[in-house]
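Justification of resources, computational component.

The compute hours requested in this renewal are based largely on the per-chain cost of generating structure records like the one below. Each record pairs the submitted sequence with a full structure-token output. That output is archived, and it is also reused by downstream analysis tasks.
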Amino acid sequence: MGFRCGGVTILLVLCLWGLFIPFSSSTRLGSSSRQKLEVNKHLNRLNKPPTKTIQSPDGDTIDCVPVSKQPAFDHPFLKDHKILMRPDFHPEGLFEENKLDESKEKSSTPINQLWHAGGKCPEGTIPIRRTKEEDVLRASSVRRYGRKKHRSAAPKPRSADPGMENQSGHQHAIAYVEGDKFYGAKATINVWEPKIQQANEFSLSQLWVLGGSFGQDLNSIEAGWQVSPDLYGDNNTRLFTYWTSDAYQATGCYNLLCSGFIQVSSDIAMGASISPISSYRDSQYDISILIWKDPKEGHWWMQFGNGGTVMGYWPSFLFSYLADSATMIEWGGEVVNSEPDGQHTSTEMGSGHFPEEGFGKASYFRNIQVVDSSNNLKAPKGLGTYTEYPNCYDVQTGSNGDWGHFFYYGGPGKNANCQ
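The structure output for this chain reads:
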């Protein structure tokens, strides 16, 4: 159904929601009453009425929202969905977390989120980081808020032309496996706070569960930590997730910023700051993330932390290829280089130091595993590595009895060998 809106015939629903109205840097979102109305509408959709509100020391507001009232249930396919509080099956064969080499022993201080200092969310609710007006104003449009840029791409190992990969400005240092059917992945990820050169750049460390080709049909589930001033308005290290079923075009988002992921944990907030973080030549901290496909219901579940907090799940209907299985698993770091004319950003990946510096200096992934068709956690076979510009960010793998399969990765970005 069409009608006249601003002299152009478009679908009524698109006109009313203003979904396709871009906002240039010269006329930021708040410059007109209509744009402000659109922002407020979006905030009302995202920020559900809480039963309790907690103020975090970092300035975040955490809303405790009833599980059944979270943004996921705005999805038309989830109107009558019966919420699953726990998966039917859990992968077997978890790596012994207590098998840490004494020379590499990390602090016993558990990883927390800063908002925990202000209290806890009651059972039956989930913590949601409240979206502020200024968060949306930093986006290019209301529709693009909480989504990766159109030109984003999961790293494609063995790309014929690394220069083509860099057209999007995204650079990686990863380990990966392919050539089989995968039903999940796990890793323990060293947590740092890399420096970001410009607000529109980010640095993250994550795992990717991928299905389909690397064309327009790519399915991806992602989780890890990131520093993203554009998304969060600060330089804090934050837990995040992402999903897409069409190569970052129209589906999916970060955290709970669209309908999709169903959270069940009352303890951990997506997008909230992680504390403490690692320091160079000092205490090291890491987080464990497990993503796996429940063989009974087919949903993709996420678990966070050594204590095994079950965060929630991505319903299987969100995906095409991942409705069956993943065809590639990737672990590692990613940054955005927005410098023009072949120049390189000084945005850091990982700790900002190269892999050869080793423990306490370079960032690591340890105990990396995949989930097989029997729902068992296994060591990855045929682990490959990939980086577009090893003089900027690099990756080195290894294995031993304490850390299983592991790798160090990252780098400083711009340096004498990376201009």
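Confidence is low (pLDDT under 50) at residues 1-30, 95-108, 160-166. The radius of gyration is 21 Å.
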